[in-house]
Batch of 3 targets.
Target 1
Amino acid sequence: MRQLSLSAEVMERLGVVWGKSAGKADGAMHLLLGHLLDTAAVAELMWDRFLAPRTKRLLEVVSGGRGRMLFVWLCAVHDVGKATPAFQEFDAAGAARVRASGLSWRSAALKSKRWRHDKAGGRLLMDVLGREWRPEHVGWVWPLIAGHHGAFPSAGVLGDRAVPQEHQGRGAQWGEVQRALVEVVTRCVGFGGVAAVCPRVVPSRAEQLELSGLIVMADWIASDSRYFPGIDRIDQVGLGVSRDRACAAWEVLRLRGGWGVLPVPGGDLVEVRFGEKGRASQDQLVAFAREVPVPALHIVEGPMGEGKTKAALVAAEVLAARFGCDGVFVGMPTQATSDPMYGQVRRWLKEFGGGLESQVALLHGKRMFNPEWREASAPDVAGGCCSGGSSFDGIDEDDELYGIASGQAERHGPIEWFLGRKRGLLCSFAVGTVDQLLFAATRTRHVMLRFAGLAGKVVIIDEVHAADVYMQQFLVEALRWLGQAGVPVVLLSATLAPAQRRALVGAYVSGQGRTGGPVVVEVPEPGGYPSITGAYVQDGRAEVVCRSTASWRESYPVALEWLPDASDGGEAVAERTAREVAGGGVALVVLNTVDRAQGVFRALDARFPGEVHLLHGRLCAAHRADRTAVCLERLGPAAGVARPGRMIVVATQLAEQSFDIDVDVLLTDLAPIDLLLQRVGRLHRHEGTVRPATLARPRVVVTGVAPGEGVPVLHGGSEAVYGRFRLLRTAAVIERTLAEGGTWSIPSQVPGLVGEVYGERAVCPSSWGEAEEKARVKWEASERDRAAKAEAFLLAARGEWSRPTLSGLHYGQAAGVGDEKDLEAVVRDGKRSVEVVIVRRRGSGYTALDGAGLGVHGEASEHVLDEVLGGTTRLPAKLTKAAESELHPLDGWRGHPWLEHSLALVLEEDGTARLGEWAVSYEPQLGLVVRAGSSG
């Protein structure tokens, strides 16, 4: 710094302007310059050891070949807004030193308005850079600084009239110190001056969002006082010192990236990675990934069991190698489907070597129940990885103004730093619910961290057809941003409705083409099944490519028939199921409501004790996991001799997705055609299975419907779940099929069937016309309302997609969204429900649901923790209000990392609990049972 020709006065003032108070910096005040250089040193390591190759390429283009220096500089200047009276006032001891150096302000004036240091930094850079940079570059850089605490303000907030001068710093002395701070940092990181930093190219808005998230990451690491304790003497501050501190922190935290630079692989990748010869549809996807000229959207449609997931993973390897991605995110529709995918991704990554399989994050709220996760994330004592604590709970004196404070950090993790709140997607390899992707498309605080985690990866989303109209708004928004960032995306589905396919393609290419909003793209129908629809923009022109090939398995006829029964108890369903398996065989019965499933189970269990298995969403976590495992063991692809002579699985919609079992006959409530076909996918699924002669032909019995006066009567619960319109159209297609011979050819007819139900052409008989029209009007109104409801939370507000910078992105942000549960409510429309941990009262104490003893106040020792957590159960939505007002954690759970926020549902010694007007019990076979309580 002596070479910078700074006056003694300025040097003295830089030596007292503080960035972290003693309370935040391990007992000694940390100079602001020291913190900025710490952050620069962390950024250097991020460039060398973490950033995806594509991100480095981006920064090289933006900077004109000085990408590393520009990235380090952007991270380093993030906190320059602390060199203002508004921030320096926060700590009395620090403020006294600053005033003693000759910098002054009126404390009383500061109380008139809050002026946060992130905004102050944005304004400061507007002034400093505005003197020497081109306006378009000032315009995209200042929001990165002004938004580094989670929300991007608008330029108007930082305008001359809006900025409180007393807070920002009056007089020449403040301006001199602020400019000197920027200049010192600029020269320390290698530039000859502020003018030399000026970028050459304006990155896209999505690329700016990614850079913003990486700046936040660097700041959060450099703010950990365990590794960056305070330095209050300027002669001890320097980039060399900060580099030593950053290297030590990086090693202890075990931070790392993913693949780095991958060679483009050749050969049959399915065989190389999974030990089985690639199928035609898998080879087709890999071939497209090898030849597509730019990052693209890949929509893969194929029948259940086709091997789409394995194809997506090997295609991701090719795409990562070609386009510089460092890892993969795999999004699944539910927590239950995420768990097996986590294991599959770990096994796939093990083939690469380097311990990558140990670095896969499982991102959902119940991951502690996954044995593989718990084993993989055991504490690494030798590595000294963070063991609890909350070093990131409040990284600045004015954190309460930002909403940064988080709950207790997780105790375990492959790389524990990435497992804190909002950071999970930064882990190079991650598997989780699709919610994680959707969160990155919401106008919420720190969305930039989530997006930065996605931007360096290949993104794979499975079962994409499962997104309803509300969720699809967030999916479409995410695709716009990912397309603009040049992120390769692979979407998997059994089949998509044509309108949904067009919406997904339109979103991605509108983002990639920077068109400023949704575009209409001609998306041809695939000519066969399985198929790939590839979409990208090259030289300003949208390209859509459709390819198809034959399935690995020949189509086979599936016979259909109706079973009239719209009753709540499902007596006719139970009777028919009993007849179907009277001589042996495996039946799957899928019902649309838990109450109906429980009723059918009761009837069948009385006939076939021990041979009937019930699966639904109101089972406790332990029972659901155990029963799912039993079904997969006995009916999965490796069942062999374990397959029983007779078995009945009664399930709700859990059986639709990623449930790889083979059954001889299917009985199912009517559902929209795409979901009905998902259920059909469990029928005669595996080759070589020995079946009873009476069940040798695949057959589907559709129920949940009864004859009516001209129009069928639908089960009320089914209507409540799916609406009347799609159910009527699906019923009409089944009626026509029965009139024409009663069989579907599966899988070849799947796209056509879905296209009929979701298309515009009339399919219902004329006698249903009035009922269909009423249902259509109601459905369209509902779809519009739900889409509009989602719009309030989308990352880019209507009409703002074409803006060139992040300025004002968080205007009107989603209020009151503080944690993952709040976000789940944002991206999933529907009646809110809560999870509880069920325990039993025994004498003066408690037991877990399974009987394991707890302390007098519910204390749970480590050896019974699994049993306690195994009692986690989701309540039906009608109990939510009562549960939130009446239930609390047990006293003995205070301070427990996994239980302190869990609501305890205490079953009294008679086995019941009262919640509002309801009596709740838990029966080992039936699961949660809810009945109307007595008036007493």
Target 2
Amino acid sequence: MLEEKYQDFLEVISTKIAKNQIFTDKLHTLVYGTDASFYRLLPKIVIKANNADEVQFIIKEAYKKVLPVTFRAAGTSLSGQAVSDSILIITSRKFTNFKLADDKSYISLEPALTGEQANNILKEFNKKIGPDPASINAAMIGGIAANNASGMCCGISQNSYKTLKSIKLIMADGTRLDTASEKSKKRFRHQHTDFLDGLKNLATKTKQDKELKSLIEKKFKIKNTCGYSLNALVDYHDEFDILSHLIIGSEGTLAFIEEVTYNTVEDYPNKASALIFFENIKDACDAVSKIKLAKDDGKIIVDAVELMDNKALKSVQDKEGMPNYLKEFNNEVTALLIETRAKLKKDLKIQTKDIEGILDEFKTVRPIKFTSKVEEYTLFWKIRKGLFPAVGAVRKIGTTVIIEDVAYPIESLSQATLELQSLFEKHGYHQALIFGHALEGNFHFVFTQDFNDEKEVKRYDEFMNDVTTSVAVKYQGSLKAEHGTGRNMAAFIELEWGKTAFDMMESIKNLFDPSGILNPGVIINHDKQAHLKNLKPLPATNDLVDTCIECGFCEPMCPSNAITFTPRHRIVANREISRLESIGEQKEAEELKEAYVYDGLETCATCSLCSTACPVGIDTGALTKYLRHERITPTQDKVATFIANNFSTTLSGMRVGLKSANFVHSLIGTSLMNGMTSSFRKLLGTPKWSATLPSGLSINKKFTNKASDKKIVYFPSCISRTMGQSSFSQEEKSLYDVTVEVLQKAGFEIILPKALEELCCGMPFSSKGFKKQSEQKSTQLEKALIEASKNGEYSILCDTSPCTKKMNESFISDIKIYEPIEFCLDKVVNELEFTKIDEPITIHTTCSSRKMGLHEKFIALAKLCSKEVIVPADVKCCGFAGDRGFNFPELNKSALSSLKEQTSKAKLAFSTSKTCEIGLSEESGLDYNSILYLVNRCTSPKN
């Protein structure tokens, strides 16, 4: 039960905020309240805000009742700045409007757009935003700006502070301000005269204090996100410039960021990288210092220099795809990954030669060699990006992975780094590794920490005290270079900055937020033990997901991310359920399990795309399948067994149902059919009907088949054997017939497996947790295909990508099974003449195809067929998930919410899965069909 003041607040906001955006129950406040840091607070109320008007309304009500509020975007921050035990406002994935300047010189972005989305908007113009955090695919603009997050290339010259053009804010009292609008500034000046006068006074006081001014200028010559951006008081004179730049890096403690306008930066397409190995870390750091000096003097052009110490290299040496020579190094070898970029290719050679010349005096373990080949430098960056997760994947279950973030003046880099390594040894962190953005003196060090043991907590505290003294006092560095202060470093700000600067920061906080309601405890925190409190447990729950570090990188890939839970949320929930069970709180655990069903199980597409973004490769879809299996009743198991044993009968029933639905549709029309089936769905919970629902199909297996030396086993999936075309479709032929035409046109003799009507890959069973029945059908199919292909002598084609992936994962034999994309590129291209059509097309790469590494190949195939290929950047999984789109259509609708807009110029649309195509057609208004239709249309036999 909520406290009275929170209950009153809840009742007021519920008058204007939809109930499905407000959460007070334990499950949702727990999962939505969790971020990537190692801190946990449980919010009393979580609100997903769709727009700035809603945020303003919420803040005004909180301000009236003096209730603390915390703002959250993606929750990928690491320092505890996005957790709350009061009111947590999350920017929903609808908060994503943007506006690009006509000359592309700046872009205005709402807070829930990810950095990747922003760069996708700018990509075709060879532009990007300046900030480039490693989490850019998941991190949202609100958080990137609020933390002044940077990364590998932007340094201090292209971060949010330096590239900010203007900003829209909502202040602690609910007042709105747009610094790009003279009208807004005039109104704000009239309403907040005392505030602006106070701000100017702080700036004047800072400029007049020569010692403080000198300290600020010195501290911001390197990366620094420890405390507030005091450089705003020195760098600017206009009060609105000062205000807007103080907001950058303020972590939601001064105002809510409604919109950021960035000056865009050039994104040069030509790149070259070199992975250079030095005999020890001192030599590597000395090389960095020389590179930095040469860059600052304009002698070389270098965009990134990443250091990886010896333990970092060893942590990834056994990973798949890593070069064998990593295993040959001794225990001192340290690497620098250097990248340079150019507008023109010819300039790259000059730039790389210049860099090599600077490094002539250093002895390297392997020869220095720059490469501009994408596949080669991609491997280098794969090594670098795999370091943090490599530690996470091998940590002891129940422990936490901690990544710290410091910066040193470049002239002290070697000595400071050697001292940092000595502190690892002193405090027993023998496996700690160092990597980071060496060009800026910015290093991350990563180690595992057990917070369940008081002795271990004490060890961590002693270690951090030594580290902070070394970094901030001895070397005058930054305790947080790019991750933000949060709760993690709040207790050490005064140590780094001194009392005068700290007092100035406190004055800023009091000026902006006199009631102290904005993210209390973050940045300004007088509790010297704050970094040791509210530590987050990571209990074991299931081997499939126990290595999760809750970073949130998976979330943009998840089709349910805007309506229910994400993979991170699902793992957090299951960890809490397991924790409760382990301490005997069975009743509460069961309550959470029941509350979890819709958000956690029913709306999980089990597409497994989360694993492609996860730093440690976790497949939360596999967890969902496991949990679904656990819930199967004996009756459900018997029904599944009956279906598996009588599969042809089941398919016949499906055909009758599909034909009947289409017959009724033809009689009463779309409008009446929609109304009638919607009523049935509300009353009886029947599956959703759609005009894109295919009619039933019976395939003709007695086609004319010419004998040929080129033989192919064609396995039409059960969907292709059952579903024809919908009344919505412009195509008359079935996928089965089109596939046969393509194969025969290419000169193949087609072999169909025996007992075809009984065959299935097992996916309809496995996705619902019916393991036994799935294995039964998979084994049956494998035997049939081995026989048809003469033990793999002939290649096998399946016309549906998800089924192909299922077979490749389940089959014991090594028979080669193609899906349409790879088959066309490997087998058809050489046999047929391709003629590009003029109509613009769009393609959708299924989750299975993406996981099989076929996305780029699909684009390549599409470009063989059409002069214009549209690939919607924000569409990942379609959310239809086999038959789940019929029972939970909201999942499909949410996953494809941007599809129609992003494919508006397309005339034709293609994919490689019939069920996906049903949902894609429904949400886009386009007639999606298999890519084989397009291949058939644009090919002819070679002379």
Target 3
Amino acid sequence: MRNFIHVFFILFVIPLFAQDYFPKNDGVRQNFKSKIAITNATVYVSPTQKLEKATILLEGDRIVEIGTNITIPKNVTVIDATGKTIYSSFIDLYSEFGMAKPPATPRGGGMNATSYEPSRQGYYWNDHIKPEYQAFENVTYDAKSAAGLREIGFGTVVSHNSDGIIAGTGLLWTLNDADNNATRILNQKVSQHFTFRRSRNSRQAYPSSLMGSMALLRQVYHDAEWYEKGNSKTVDLSLDAFNQNKKLLQIFNAGDKLNALRAATIGKEFGVNYLIKGSGNEFERIEEIKKTGATYIIPLEFPEAYDVSNSFLAYQVSLTDMKFWNQAPFNLKILAENNVNFILTASDLKNQKEFLTQLRKAVAYGLPKEKALAALTTIPAQLLNQSANLGSLKKGSLANFIITSGDLFESKTILHENWVQGNRTILSKFDGLDSRGTYDLVINQINYELKIEGEAAKPEAKITKDSISFDTKTQFNDPWINLLVKSKDTTAKGYMRLNGVFDNAAFKGTATLEDGSVIPWSAKLKEPNKVKEKPTEEIVVPEMVPIAYPNVAFGNKEKPKQETLLFKNATVWTGESEGILKETDVLIQNGKIIRIGKNISGANAKTIDATGKHLTAGIIDEHSHIAISSGVNEGGQNSSAEVTIEDVINSEDINIYRNLSGGVTSANLLHGSANPIGGRAAFIKLKWGYSPEEMLVKEAPKYIKFALGENVKQSNWGTGGSRFPQSRMGVEQVYEDYFTQALAYEKEWKTYNASKSKTKIKPRYDIEMEVLVEILNKKRFITCHSYVQSEINMLMKLADRYQFKIQTFTHILEGYKVADKMAAHGVGGSTFSDWWGYKFEVKDAIPHNAALMQGEGVLVSINSDDAEMSRRLNQEAAKTVKYGNVSEEEAWNFVTLNPARLLQVDNRLGSIKVGKDADVVLWSESPLSIYAKVEKTIIDGIVFYDLEQSEAIIENIQKERNLMINQLLDAKNKGSKTQTPKRREVKHYHCDTLLEEF
């Protein structure tokens, strides 16, 4: 493969520099290079430097002189550009120009239509990793597409394949119709491309989630380093290519702002400075975006206004979508103000012709012109290491430039010409003729009326005779006109063709009649054009709705800040041996509980009268699937220990706010139950408005999700399930197999680290095995999805054999049957209060389960596993009082202190105790009452939910909606394009949610 690439390089690239050596068999060799002088123009030699009445002297494909005092040599073609402005042609670093798009491989229905093995040999074990793909081997120059790009100012693009998590290399080439690829291609391998999306052309199941893509990327980096040092016994063409591509520009198509932060995180881990393609919503997380230090590729696709003229349909549009319509055009202004480096792309535009319109809109909304120009010229040239050739106009650079009628960013400005490598494309003549008007047309001595209307550069002709109108098609290439006129004889299908030239307010030429005879025709102007050009409307910039944290409904005007708070005269549910304290004060300072007692005073504290109210520790949901992006399951393999929910925390999930309103302050975000060994968990605090990084409790002990039962053996995945295991016996064997591998892996590394041999071979670093070794060494703890007593027993016995302990059985609806064995093993049970009967293996569930397990000495908690139930976990805890005669304090501990103990964070959370984190909830009455309302939810001394403020928030939401609805109506009234209102669908994850498209 490498030899092939080398030979291809010789055959393909040498002609770039050696075309003169090719035999000339079709005529006499000519080495003539055209010399052209463009004079009297305003020239932007760079985004910040302008020359007036300047001359550009071209020879061949290069600028040989540029300035205001240029002596024009003899025998030079002179183009007078008086009144015109010249800019460097644009560069797009993110294009699929010329790339073939093979049809997607059909996947059929569900996981059963997928493959669990790669389709290739000699390459990486995963088909979605394709660094060996070379764009320059797969491009076809498309003259029509090139013309479209030149029309909007582009002269050079990086073309790449966007299919796959690692999608291969891109090439840099020009949009030069006049030459061939030997001249066009400036660099055949300039970039390596990444996405989080799997290949459309592979059926391989893994990865099936965003977190799976991130884990796979990490493993590739580890494998590439290991491979590069010669540790592999076999050849891997993908890793070969990946290592060769590391010195290229690394471009990551991340899309959404949170994904951009995720891409930057991976880059930081492996010392890679990605050029990150965003989606236009970076302004919503500008502080975090700024901290990445990355350069961003920003599309100029702004959302169309929603047609809200129907008030019923207007309610279908979420506040989030309305705000994005209002705020998105300000994105580039905000990036510029925050000194975030960025370039621009036309790649996401539905209609490429809208590029200049959208660019001018961004400038009208506050993007400085010089920043806009730099983002299209000098910055991409610098990133490509092509500043000597592209991006600015100077002696020696390629003759790539556009000529406009004036300031590029003014809406009336016309783009006249685009020169690429010295080759001229005329888009609109400098002083184009206006032939519009009404004419007396004479053909074969018969009089007609000819009306020419429409745009001056693209006129439309209509021919009439008395009241009869003739269908006419028009082609106008100033000053030439071609008219195709259909016969009015319904029995014939004949046409008359008029070819002529426009001069001195008249047309004349020849007409080819239906019978083929050729005669002269003429048309004299009778009445000049009366249609006035539509005045170009100035872009009216609407009031920008303030950015919220997060920028969705119920977001905060600013990030909430820590306070010193003093609760007076509360009924305090301590969760400790002190029990419930009446008329007690609690002082919170610096995010901690610092005093509990009576008659407490606090300097500078905000006092909250809690008389008649109840203060508790915040609820901890031990099993949650809220706040997760793009897939809760990585079900593409029977073990996915390498993935982690920490990678995909969604800080903008509205369920965070809803949970806060139900008194939840922390949640253990778990992987689903698609495989026996699932992914790692993320323990977060529900800090609404904060970043995923800030929500994550990094010091908390680390957990992983295991699963038993119907889900992991694919009982409910339809017929023909193909992945091992397919039985409960097979589930046990999966555990045996992987823990045996983990022991061998650990031994291999210990042997390597102890060896002093200079020829020792370093073992492969395997993220999945590293995690399993953590379990064996009691550094990571298992939460296991479970139902049936036989499997519960099996896993405890297996853990005993491998000398570790299961920390928690979750669901555990047959826990009451084996509670004594659970207590002996030391495993806790996190269960539902009264769910049963929702699938076959739940048929023996009873609502007394929690009380019965606790009675046998099992540490018990109540969890939600559901975005809706988690809002009322206080009531779920109260059910155990009814069903199990559990005391109210014990019942309350089921959702506070007990989950804290199961998660081993009870040193910080779960009760009201001096020194613990100030994660507390103020209730209107007993938290176990169905009438109790949360009045305040506080995390680390920060108020994240306030019942009183929520009413003001709702009023503000309505105010913002009304403002934007009027803006939308105004936009429609002024002729803006609109889109039909549509409801934003929010996906709720459960343990068995599969195949999220990401």
